[in-house]
């Protein structure tokens, strides 16, 4: 009995040691790429950018916008105002793309028109300076988003540049005349397309970087009539209308006066002839 009891105790002790050894091995770290619970190790997604605080920041693309506009200003001397507008554009880093002036003549007021190219970032400041040159009659600005067009052109230019590079490398390795002629034809076509797309991209970049502003300078004679807002302005407007009416009437009289003199002379001659004839036929 003692021998059986000793053997039983030894078996129980051996089983207990085996259980402790297996539990200790399972609590350790597993193979690389798994956690202790057996799950896969987590890793940030390679397609997103993770900031220091753990927030994901999506990429942002700059917008490409073309700005065009017109402004009409009433001034005393359009030519002088046009020179000042050109100076404002030059100070802002822009240029004058077109200028058309008409000097004042007798009865015809002078005017001037400029096409200014001003950096888009400085357009607001340049507009404020232009408005100080005289009385602003009209301001109109319009924008056109061409972000998609620029991105498409950039992608096509990149693809064509890569293709041109590969064809150039193939041409250097050509061993037959037929292969050389075929590669040269394809290379010439792609280079032509690449130059065309590059020119379009330069023109689009110029339109985006420089806003186009058309400035019209006129005088008070050509300015639109504004309705009077007060009694005094009403009296001034009425007096101006009266003066304009008599001025126009004097112009009409001046035009008709030579004809009236000729008509009076011819009428007097006809009356004298008629009287003479009448006197001659009297008994």
Describe what this molecule looks like in 3D.
- With about 280 residues, the protein is α+β, with helices and mostly antiparallel strands.
- It is about 55% helix and about 15% strand.
- It is built from six helices and five strands.
- It has helices at about 1-25, 80-90, 125-130, 145-175, 175-210, 230-280; strands spanning about 65-75, 95-100, 110-120, 135-145, 210-220.
- It has a five-stranded mixed β-sheet.
- Strand 2 and strand 3 (about 110-120) form a beta hairpin.
- Helix 4 runs antiparallel to helix 5.
- The termini are far apart.
- Residues about 20-60 have low confidence and may be disordered.
Share of β-strand residues: 15-25%
Label the overall shape.
elongated
What structural class results from the helix and strand content?
Answer: alpha+beta
Tell me the strand order in the biggest sheet.
2-3-5-1-4
Number of helices: 6
Mean pLDDT: 79
Distance between the termini: 197 Å
Low-confidence stretches: 18-60
Largest sheet: 5 strands, mixed
State the helicity in percent bands. Answer: 55-70%
The number of E-state strands comes to: 5
Order of helices and strands: HEHEEHEHHEH
What Rg, in angstroms, do the CA atoms define? 46 Å
């Amino acid at each position: 009995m003692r021998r059986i009891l000793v053997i039983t105790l030894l078996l129980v002790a051996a089983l207990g040691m085996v259980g402790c050894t297996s539990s200790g091995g399972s609590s350790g770290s597993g193979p690389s790429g798994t956690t202790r619970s057996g799950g896969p190790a987590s890793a940030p997604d390679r397609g997103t950018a993770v900031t220091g605080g753990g927030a994901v920041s999506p990429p942002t693309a700059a917008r490409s916008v073309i700005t065009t506009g017109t402004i009409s200003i009433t001034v005393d001397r359009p030519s002088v105002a046009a020179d000042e507008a050109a100076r404002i554009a030059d100070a802002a880093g822009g240029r004058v793309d077109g200028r058309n002036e008409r000097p004042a003549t007798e009865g015809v007021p002078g005017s001037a028109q400029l096409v200014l190219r001003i950096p888009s970032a400085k357009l607001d400041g340049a507009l404020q300076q232009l408005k100080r040159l005289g009385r602003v009659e009209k301001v109109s600005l319009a924008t056109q988003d061409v972000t998609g067009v620029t991105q498409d052109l950039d992608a096509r230019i990149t693809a064509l540049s890569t293709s041109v590079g590969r064809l150039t490398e193939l041409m250097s390795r050509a061993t037959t005349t037929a292969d050389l002629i075929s590669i040269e034809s394809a290379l010439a076509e792609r280079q032509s397309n690449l130059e065309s797309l590059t020119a379009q991209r330069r023109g689009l970049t110029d339109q985006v970087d420089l806003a186009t502003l058309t400035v019209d300078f006129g005088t008070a004679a050509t300015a639109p009539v504004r309705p009077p807002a007060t009694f005094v302005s009403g009296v001034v407007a009425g007096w101006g209308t009266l003066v304009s009416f008599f001025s126009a009437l004097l112009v009409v009289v001046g035009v008709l006066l030579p004809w009236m003199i000729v008509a009076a002379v011819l009428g007097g001659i006809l009356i004298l002839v008629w009287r003479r004839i009448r006197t001659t036929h009297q008994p």
